Hints:
Number of strands: 6
Distance between the termini: 12 Å
Largest sheet: 6 strands, parallel
Structural class: alpha/beta
Helix content: 40-55%
Radius of gyration: 18 Å
CATH topology of the largest domain: Rossmann fold
Strand content: 5-15%
Mean pLDDT: 93
Strand order of the largest sheet: 3-2-1-4-5-6
CATH class of the largest domain: Alpha Beta
Oligomer: single chain
Number of domains: 2
Shape: elongated
CATH superfamily of the largest domain: HAD superfamily/HAD-like
Amino acid sequence: MIKAVIFDFDGLIFDTETYELESYQIIYKKYNVEFPLQRWYESIGTNFVFDPYENLIHSDTKLDKNEICKERTAIFEDSILQKSPRDGVILYFEQAKELGLKVALASSSTKKWIYRFLEMLDLEKYFDLIYTADDVTEVKPNPELYLKVLEHFGIQPNEAVVFEDSPNGSLAAIRANIPCVVVPNAATQNLVFDHQVAMRINSMAEIDLSELLQKLSLKQI
């Protein structure tokens, strides 16, 4: 019996990943440098394994990294104004509460980053538990974030469901032995996910949470 639903944040609840990718592509295009897209993809859902400004700065030693960073950040900030959570997200939170489920957030981003957007979108009220990169020694694809959620609620892996949008995030759930539903966004929809993901949907708006959980239960039989 499912007792908790656990959500990633970036790219799943709020599509910061797509907006950030677009901001980097805009700034790279301005200086006629190819953005290292594959390396970006490899970093989604975990800590950056590379400096996203590296190729740009190396292309022209006259460029100031701090100024480029400010310019790119301004583009990102402008792109997220008036944006909303992804389709169906809030409905899932409400349905989870109606079903008596615990609702947790487990993110590889920092607490400062997460709480900024939770406040902006008025979402903090939906969560019984929030864990971020500041609460663990290793972020996804390490399963530590998800294992801490299980420990906090005192539940087994098969009593929870994880919602993720990236291969790194889904791999963390799989390593924690928690059934994982992937909901890719525009930036991750063409990436390769582990074959062990329990289900893939395009949007939380396409299926009610109760129906999704029922389908997952039937798969586990």
